[in-house]
Fold this protein.
Amino acid sequence: LRKTDPRYVILRDFAKEHLPEDDLFKLANVCYEAIPPVLQATGKVKNPWPNVDALSGTCMQYYGLTQEDYYTSVFAVSRALGCVANLVWSRKMGLPIERPKSMDLDALEAIAK
Protein backbone atom coordinates (compact mmCIF):
# COMPACT_ATOMS: atom_id res chain seq x y z
CA LEU A 1 0.00 0.00 0.00
CA ARG A 2 1.10 3.50 -0.70
CA LYS A 3 1.15 5.87 2.20
CA THR A 4 1.85 9.45 3.15
CA ASP A 5 5.11 11.02 1.99
CA PRO A 6 7.51 10.80 4.97
CA ARG A 7 8.55 14.41 4.36
CA TYR A 8 4.90 15.39 4.83
CA VAL A 9 4.77 13.50 8.13
CA ILE A 10 7.88 15.31 9.38
CA LEU A 11 6.53 18.70 8.31
CA ARG A 12 3.12 17.92 9.84
CA ASP A 13 4.74 17.00 13.17
CA PHE A 14 6.73 20.25 13.03
CA ALA A 15 3.56 22.24 12.30
CA LYS A 16 1.65 20.51 15.12
CA GLU A 17 4.36 21.63 17.52
CA HIS A 18 5.04 25.15 16.22
CA LEU A 19 1.81 26.39 14.65
CA PRO A 20 -1.07 24.32 16.04
CA GLU A 21 -3.46 27.27 16.20
CA ASP A 22 -2.81 28.57 12.68
CA ASP A 23 -6.05 28.56 10.67
CA LEU A 24 -4.36 27.44 7.45
CA PHE A 25 -2.68 24.53 9.27
CA LYS A 26 -5.99 23.55 10.83
CA LEU A 27 -7.54 23.49 7.35
CA ALA A 28 -4.65 21.43 5.94
CA ASN A 29 -4.98 19.02 8.84
CA VAL A 30 -8.71 18.56 8.29
CA CYS A 31 -8.04 17.93 4.59
CA TYR A 32 -5.39 15.34 5.51
CA GLU A 33 -7.86 13.48 7.68
CA ALA A 34 -10.90 13.77 5.40
CA ILE A 35 -9.76 13.57 1.77
CA PRO A 36 -7.66 10.37 1.54
CA PRO A 37 -10.46 8.06 2.79
CA VAL A 38 -12.89 9.58 0.29
CA LEU A 39 -10.43 9.15 -2.57
CA GLN A 40 -9.69 5.58 -1.49
CA ALA A 41 -13.39 4.78 -1.49
CA THR A 42 -13.66 5.67 -5.17
CA GLY A 43 -11.15 2.96 -6.03
CA LYS A 44 -9.79 5.15 -8.83
CA VAL A 45 -6.87 6.79 -7.03
CA LYS A 46 -3.65 4.84 -6.53
CA ASN A 47 -2.11 7.14 -3.95
CA PRO A 48 -4.56 9.44 -2.14
CA TRP A 49 -2.02 10.57 0.45
CA PRO A 50 -0.50 14.07 0.35
CA ASN A 51 3.13 14.82 -0.37
CA VAL A 52 5.23 17.49 1.28
CA ASP A 53 3.91 20.19 -1.06
CA ALA A 54 0.48 19.90 0.55
CA LEU A 55 1.81 21.50 3.72
CA SER A 56 4.99 23.38 2.81
CA GLY A 57 3.06 26.42 1.56
CA THR A 58 1.20 26.58 4.86
CA CYS A 59 4.47 26.71 6.80
CA MET A 60 6.01 29.26 4.44
CA GLN A 61 2.91 31.44 4.79
CA TYR A 62 3.06 31.20 8.58
CA TYR A 63 6.70 32.25 8.68
CA GLY A 64 6.16 35.27 6.44
CA LEU A 65 6.77 34.10 2.88
CA THR A 66 3.38 35.28 1.69
CA GLN A 67 4.16 35.65 -2.02
CA GLU A 68 3.17 32.29 -3.45
CA ASP A 69 5.06 32.99 -6.68
CA TYR A 70 8.28 32.28 -4.76
CA TYR A 71 7.27 28.83 -3.47
CA THR A 72 8.56 27.10 -6.62
CA SER A 73 11.83 29.01 -6.34
CA VAL A 74 12.27 27.90 -2.73
CA PHE A 75 11.63 24.31 -3.80
CA ALA A 76 14.15 24.59 -6.65
CA VAL A 77 16.83 26.04 -4.38
CA SER A 78 16.34 23.29 -1.81
CA ARG A 79 16.54 20.65 -4.56
CA ALA A 80 19.71 22.24 -5.95
CA LEU A 81 21.31 22.29 -2.49
CA GLY A 82 20.59 18.58 -2.18
CA CYS A 83 22.32 17.92 -5.50
CA VAL A 84 25.31 20.03 -4.49
CA ALA A 85 25.56 18.22 -1.14
CA ASN A 86 25.62 14.93 -3.03
CA LEU A 87 28.44 16.19 -5.24
CA VAL A 88 30.43 17.37 -2.23
CA TRP A 89 30.14 13.96 -0.56
CA SER A 90 31.15 12.25 -3.81
CA ARG A 91 34.31 14.36 -3.96
CA LYS A 92 35.04 13.76 -0.26
CA MET A 93 34.73 10.00 -0.75
CA GLY A 94 37.00 10.10 -3.79
CA LEU A 95 34.35 8.94 -6.22
CA PRO A 96 34.93 9.79 -9.87
CA ILE A 97 33.17 12.70 -11.48
CA GLU A 98 30.11 11.46 -13.32
CA ARG A 99 30.09 12.39 -16.96
CA PRO A 100 27.01 10.92 -18.59
CA LYS A 101 27.36 10.21 -22.27
CA SER A 102 25.33 12.30 -24.63
CA MET A 103 22.84 10.12 -26.43
CA ASP A 104 20.42 10.84 -29.20
CA LEU A 105 16.86 9.52 -29.31
CA ASP A 106 17.76 6.62 -31.60
CA ALA A 107 20.33 5.32 -29.10
CA LEU A 108 17.84 5.59 -26.23
CA GLU A 109 15.20 3.72 -28.23
CA ALA A 110 17.74 0.97 -29.04
CA ILE A 111 18.49 0.53 -25.32
CA ALA A 112 14.80 0.43 -24.46
CA LYS A 113 14.08 -2.41 -26.91
In short: The CA atoms of residues 36 and 48 lie 5 Å apart. Helices lie at 6-18, 23-42, 53-62, 71-92, 105-112.
